[in-house]
Write a structure and sequence with these properties.
- By secondary structure, this protein is α+β, with helices and mostly antiparallel strands.
- 47% of the residues lie in helices and 12% in strands.
- It has 2 domains: 40-177, Gyrase A, domain 2 (2-Layer Sandwich), CATH 3.30.1360; 195-370, Multidrug efflux transporter AcrB transmembrane fold (Up-down Bundle).
- A hairpin with a 3-residue loop joins strand 1 and strand 2.
- Helix 4 (195-223) runs antiparallel to helix 5.
- The longest helix has 37 residues, at 288-324.
- The chain is elongated, with a radius of gyration of 31 Å.
- The protein starts with 9 loop residues before the first strand and ends in a 32-residue tail after the last helix.
């Protein structure tokens, strides 16, 4: 439900046998509910040479009784129980990855998988003796796929060919996240109004806008034209960030907005370091072009080190949230880390490009417009030599 930690999903216990799942920003609640319903007992079974269409209810030796959620009381029409070759307990979920099968004249979407332990040898033995026959994948007594065995699954690993990207994505999710030691049944589901969340986001947006506005005004007043260039770079930073949030996608809750605003502060800090160093170089009788290049070169080590330190902190927060299920920390850490990388690009590349474009326009008598000034260096007085 929340693989990247960007959806701010909340999963918590309720009593002894219930789990509450909150999914902010889900566009299709029914799809989320169906995904939860599909989280249960996963089995690879011998279909006795028969192809069974996805959605077919079956009895297996591992699950001889149908879940009540299927609503089927008469099991006599289902035939004998199908032999379970292995179940999801030994499935290496890390190996379940999207793939492309290149056999034949055309390529087809596929899903790779690998079993460990005794399941690996059992699967290899069964597949070697049943090449050309179907082997069905069953989830909670319902067939989800029935691929044909094209070769022995040596080492318990292989690929499952599908007909479409949609089928591959569905099977990938069910294999990777579908095996639990006990089946799940969705008791109730409801859509909650986002009024409170909208108020929090609105307040956070207003606070962020005011803070950003104050920073921009300060940069423009103190650093003049370079401050304006920095403000333009921050605007580009914001557009790039929102574009990536849309692509990932990232649900911007209060924690996500906090990470975004904090990364803006880091971006401004980088510009301040560059401009301060640039001003220092100019004061020591450097020309504008030299002071500009030296400002970036001399400020880069400090910018790099601070950014790396923040990225390390973000990584630790993300891993901590992933290990202990604190998704709100994962969302904050991811937006902060992503913002740091973008801010490096805007501060070092975009701002630098903007300032370089000003070099041909610079006139020494306009130094004040660039927030620059000279310092008076007193002439060195000759020291009279002693003849004693």
């Amino acid at each position: 439900m929340n693989g990247l930690g960007v959806g701010e999903t909340v999963v918590q216990l309720s009593g002894n046998d219930r789990i509450i799942v909150e999914l902010p920003g889900v566009a299709d609640p029914e799809q989320a509910v169906e995904a939860l319903r599909g989280t249960g007992r996963l089995e690879f079974v011998d279909s006795q040479g028969q192809y069974l269409a996805p959605g077919t209810p079956v009895l297996t030796t591992g699950s001889p009784e149908l879940p009540a959620a299927l609503g089927i009381t008469d099991t006599t029409t289902l035939g004998p129980s199908l032999t379970s070759i292995t179940d999801g307990a030994d499935l290496d979920t890390a190996s379940v990855q999207p793939a492309v099968s290149t056999g034949g004249l055309t390529s087809r979407p596929a899903v790779s998988f690998r079993f460990t332990g005794n399941s690996s040898s059992e699967l290899a033995r069964f597949s070697a003796g049943n090449v050309g026959q179907p082997m069905c994948i069953v989830l909670d007594n319902v067939v989800i796929s029935c691929p044909q065995i094209n070769a022995a699954l040596t080492g318990g690993e292989g690929v499952i060919e599908l007909n479409s990207e949609e089928e591959r994505n569905a099977l990938l999710t069910q294999l990777k996240y579908g095996a639990l030691p006990t089946p799940l049944a969705v008791e109730t589901s409801r859509t909650v109004s986002a009024t409170l969340g909208e108020e929090e986001v609105r307040a956070s947006t207003i606070a962020g806008t005011i803070g950003l506005g104050v920073v921009v005004v300060f940069m423009m007043l103190y650093y003049r034209i370079p401050g304006i260039m920095a403000a333009l770079a921050l605007a580009i930073y914001t557009l790039i960030s929102f574009a990536l949030y849309r692509i990932v996608p990232i649900t911007l809750t209060a924690a996500g907005i906090a990470g975004f605003v904090l990364s803006i502060g880091v971006a401004v800090d980088a510009n301040v370091l560059i401009f301060a160093r640039m001003r220092e170089e100019y004061r020591h009788r450097r020309d504008f072009r030299f002071a500009l290049e030296a400002g970036f070169q001399e400020a880069w080590p400090a910018i790099r080190d601070s950014s790396v330190a923040t990225l390390i902190t973000s990584t630790i927060l993300y891993l901590f949230g992933n290990s202990f299920g604190v998704s709100i920390i994962k969302g904050f850490a991811l937006t902060l880390g992503l913002g740091i990388v973008i801010s490096l690009f805007t501060a070092v590349i975009i701002t630098r490009t903007f300032l370089r474009s000003l070099v041909p326009l610079y006139k020494p008598h306009q130094a004040a417009l660039y927030g620059l000034d000279r310092i008076d260096i007193p002439a060195v007085q000759p020291v009279a030599a002693s003849t004693d």
